[in-house]
Amino acid sequence: MTEPVSRVERKERTRRAILDAALELSDESTLAAISLRQVAKQVGIVPTAFYRHFDSIDALGLALVDEAFASLRTMMRDIRRGDPALADIVDRSVSVLVDHVHGHRAHFLFIARERAAGPPGVRDEIRHQIELFERELSTDLARLPGTDTWSPEDLGVLSNLIVTAMVSTAESILSAAGRPDVEKQLVEQARTQLRMVLVGALNWRSKP
Amino acid sequence: MTEPVSRVERKERTRRAILDAALELSDESTLAAISLRQVAKQVGIVPTAFYRHFDSIDALGLALVDEAFASLRTMMRDIRRGDPALADIVDRSVSVLVDHVHGHRAHFLFIARERAAGPPGVRDEIRHQIELFERELSTDLARLPGTDTWSPEDLGVLSNLIVTAMVSTAESILSAAGRPDVEKQLVEQARTQLRMVLVGALNWRSKP
DNA sequence: ACTGTCAGTGTACGAGTGTTCACTGAGAGG
DNA sequence: CCTCTCAGTGAACACTCGTACACTGACAGT
After folding, report:
1. Nucleotides of D under 7 A from a protein CB
2. Which chain B residues are closer than 8 Å to A174 by Cβ?
3. Of A168, A205, B59, B73, which sits most exposed with the smallest number of CB within 10 A?
4. Of B136, B134, B122, B127, nearest to B65 (Cα)?
5. A53-80 per-position pLDDT tens digit
6. What CATH homologous superfamily does B56-202 map to?
7. At CB < 8 Å, which residues of chain A contact B?
């Protein structure tokens, strides 16, 4: 079963266990309210051993942010993959988002919490990553037909609106866990909102 | 100066001091990470005296939520007051929002944090209050001309989108404190987003 | 003037906190 | 084989934490 246990491999395994433990504890509390000792107890190591892997809880938080956004990036790739048929781009985007929220529930929960309440460094990093998403979306939108008359500024503004709506949708879905009817309604709402925004976009002229 | 100090008045004064202290401490941390003793020290009372006013930190949190949303309600009234001239309703709404964010910075900061990371009871209450705002906005929108063809569901969806965007704007402005140029840009972005949504709304037909 | 109420005090407790330090012992490299 | 590295140990430190308890003394009602 667990035969080849090299030294570095063992260390990496413990590191993972620490990350998972912190993620699990973040379910019920904030990172700022989690103690190094709680994490250590959950992992099954002595508190001081924690320092072999991270300098502080804050550093652990930054590592978790990296991890969470790495999985978000694969989500974006999933959305872009395949046809850019404008007709069902909305349905496709929303359903991929919902799938990822379910598949990476802990990560989304962590980001949602720490975005507002995490240590300053963690908050800044999350804000920065979300900003990167907006920029990516912006260049994607620029490739769409009908956006010729748009100024780059307006494209950015639109991207921000869409990303904000999707972040909000993800957070709502998280808090609707275990109530499939509520979730279904939220998904339908997200679809409608995207369509509304799209209708607005198609009738928009920059510098009106 | 401080002549008429009746008993109940003294108590109320201490209660206010506790609320203010908690609000101030929330600037740098989450309610869940704030200790009863920190609050007591800041107020200048002994820790056990805290219980004369609140059963727990959570109860304090709920009181703060009530207070914060009371001031938000006056904001809504400010927006509604006066002419419903559709032309400058956007500019008016945004500028009132910005004014209130500046005038009640601590309250907005508190809500933004606790909305995502507060104790469950506090989170639920905030969510509920925001939902009430959406409903209010929904009935306001229904009074606007051109919404005849709208279904009540779509009105709710649109309200949610607008409220979400405004909440996000408020949070962004909070984190842009001390950088007037960034704030100016955010305000302009909020205006543009509302206009985009409005354009979408005017071209919308329910059940397309 | 006498008395009851009650906001605030002071002490004490057991439990949990981050961080230090010297340590152990299994795996890696020569 | 023998040494070096280093993930994890365990005791000890000087705190902070929430809460229980008996208390004081100024105000309010009679």
Report:
1. 6-11, 16-22, 27-28
2. none
3. A205
4. B122
5. 999 999 999 999 999 999 999 998 888 8
6. Tetracycline Repressor, domain 2 (1.10.357.10)
7. 29-30, 32-33, 112-117, 127, 154, 157-158, 160-161, 164-165, 168, 171, 175, 189, 192-193, 195-201, 203-204, 208
